Automatic annotation (TrEMBL):
Gene (UniProt): egtC
Protein role: Catalyzes the hydrolysis of the gamma-glutamyl amide bond of hercynyl-gamma-L-glutamyl-L-cysteine sulfoxide to produce hercynylcysteine sulfoxide, a step in the biosynthesis pathway of ergothioneine.
One annotated GO molecular function: hydrolase activity, acting on carbon-nitrogen (but not peptide) bonds, in linear amides
Superkingdom of the organism of origin: Bacteria
Annotated region described as Disordered, given as residue ranges: 246-266
Organism of origin: Streptomyces griseicoloratus
InterPro entries associated with the record: EgtC, EgtC-like, EgtC_Actinobacteria, Gamma-glu_amide_hydrolase, Ntn_hydrolases_N
Keyword Repeat annotated: no
Top enzyme class: hydrolase
Protein name as it appears in the record: Gamma-glutamyl-hercynylcysteine sulfoxide hydrolase
Record bears the keyword Zinc-finger: no
Catalyzed reactions: gamma-L-glutamyl-hercynylcysteine S-oxide + H2O = S-(hercyn-2-yl)-L-cysteine S-oxide + L-glutamate
Length: 266
């Protein structure tokens, strides 16, 4: 359904993370190696990044495939950042929302992406949608499942939930309303990363030189890449990664993280 990637760490050009690696997100748009659903991610792309001293990220999004955008390579070569979130999209359903439907979605300091699909969309999320303030539903950026899932996450963030809890509780709510959904969510506020593995692939790389990458699949063959088990919440900083097993929706809670789940950088 899509491939996505988030990074926090030392400043890097966008292209060093998204274009230069042999199996970078750029290449994953037409030749993903581990994608279980769909084969080509040509229905839009986007990247959001943080500039030094500005907590509100910039975004660059387009409705077409990343390889067809002749400006992106130049932008990726010169723009540097210490935190980003990017995605290439394979649309669940064809729609008319163009780049508005392409991740990352954004609000304030947050960037968000959804890799997967909500089963039975849109009817399956009628009940969760009724829990949102009407103005949030009426102002959805796009008419797709990812935009509604983002609204549910954002509602929790605005209520004061920390990022990992907001993702995990949203996954449980959506999975309960729409069993069989694939809900790999990715969120950053520029300092940390939160992600869920729920029905699709997720990996992380704690780079020996500093920084953490969380992605749908590895962008190279570095042996330090680690696969995240399904039904897991990942939270990461520039130096540490924490994996917390998630319960099924009927359990209404996160399992406590075992002590061995924390992976300090080596």
């Amino acid at each position: 359904m899509c491939r996505h990637l988030a990074y926090v760490g030392p400043e890097e050009p966008l292209g060093r993370l998204l274009v230069a690696p042999p199996h970078a997100l750029y290449r994953q748009s037409w030749a993903p190696r581990r994608q279980r659903y769909g084969t080509v991610n040509a229905d839009g792309f986007g990247v959001g990044w943080y500039a030094d001293g500005d907590p509100v990220p910039a975004r660059y999004r387009r409705a077409g495939p990343i390889w067809a955008d002749q400006s992106f390579a130049d932008l990726a070569r010169v723009v540097r950042t210490g935190a980003l979130l990017a995605a290439v999209r394979d649309a669940t359903l064809a729609g008319a929302d163009a780049e508005a439907a392409a991740a990352p979605f954004a609000s304030g300091t947050w960037l968000f992406s959804h890799n997967g699909a909500v089963a039975g969309w849109p009817g399956s999320l009628a009940a969760p949608a009724r829990t949102l303030p009407p103005e949030d539903v009426l102002s959805l950026e796009a008419r797709n499942d990812s935009a509604l899932v983002w609204a549910l996450v954002l509602n929790r963030l605005r209520a004061g939930d920390e990022e990992g809890r907001a993702l995990a509780d949203t996954v449980l709510e959506v999975a309960g309303a729409a069993p069989g959904s694939r809900l790999n969510l990715l969120l950053t506020g520029g300092e940390t990363i939160a992600a869920t593995a729920w029905g699709d692939t997720l990996w992380y790389l704690a780079r020996p030189g500093g920084g953490t990458v969380v992605a749908s699949e590895p962008y190279d063959d570095d042996p330090h890449w680690q696969e995240v088990p399904d039904r897991t919440l990942l939270t990461a900083s520039r130096t540490d990664v924490l994996l917390t097993p998630m319960k099924e929706p009927s359990d209404h809670a996160l399992a406590p993280a075992p002590a061995s789940a924390k992976e300090p950088r080596t």
